[in-house]
Amino acid sequence: MSGPVVPPRGWEQWKQIIHGFFPGKPKFTEGQYPSFEGKVVIVTGGNTGVGYETVKSLAGSTKAKLYIFSRSEEKTLEAIKQIQLEVAKEYNISNREIHFIKVDLSDLETIKPAVQKFLSQESRLDLIIHNAGVMTPPVGSKSKQGYELQLGTNTIGPHLLQRLLDPIFIETSKKNAPGVSRIVWVASSGHQFAPLGGFHWDDVNFEKMKVTNNDQMMIYGQSKAGNVIQARTWTRKHNTGSQIISSSICPGFLDTDLQRHISSFEKVMYKFILHPRRMGAYTELFAAFSPDVKDGSHSISFGVPGHARKDLLDPEVCDKVWNYLNKVTDPYM
Fold this sequence. Notes:
single chain, 333 residues, alpha/beta, Rossmann fold, eight-stranded mixed beta sheet, two-stranded parallel sheet, 9 helices, 13% strand, NAD(P)-bd_dom_sf, oxidoreductase, SDR_fam, NADP
């Protein structure tokens, strides 16, 4: 078995990393968002971190019907109450309705029931933001089905969720103007640390090699490379032409709950270099609404066109990952 090979970062990659530390102010903000009245939006992981801020901005700046898909009912209902209070204070909008559907992306068996519940309540879906994710959990952490936890939660779970939502999403897109219906795959600049070709195919769950702390970013990067590939490949596999925009983003270098597994020293250091989580919502909603976003593109903080690593854009690489994700989610369709 060969070890994973991570391509060296060139100037284009380093430039994006530097931009993450010094991104400037967002230029595409609430005043430019569409009203989205009568449209339906799903944000996964919208009860915490960047997802929370994204839901709050949508609640205050649009008239869309909002759904949070997340795993903790108690925490999400509490988050919704807090969002409503903040929206009333910041946007002067009272009693903004936000809906919750329970799903655990690390457990594939929970995803179809969640979609069935959503379909029992809605007849359209206009925007999906695949925001939920985990980062650098304890070494050896696994999803319910035995996948490396970041791969299972960040890549495989969202892939199944999207597959199950595809019929209503595609049907809705036919009623919208081109480019209104969108999928936002929240990736990361961490995709630059992924193995060559995105996945370490000899050991995709990193069970055979001895994993050290130095490997953590590579393993996280694999799951985020998956998101870049999903964004790049979705439209090509669904023959929807210019009707739907599927794109990936790095929301920014942000102070969120994603860092809960890092060391105390790292947490202190990150306080000096990370940006407020609210700024990441501007990246997510740039991808969701900006007319400058193209299908298959990649955006970086806080609403700037970026570039994914070139080997992840190769159609053969994309097809290999896509076929793998289809295969492992087929039993749960």
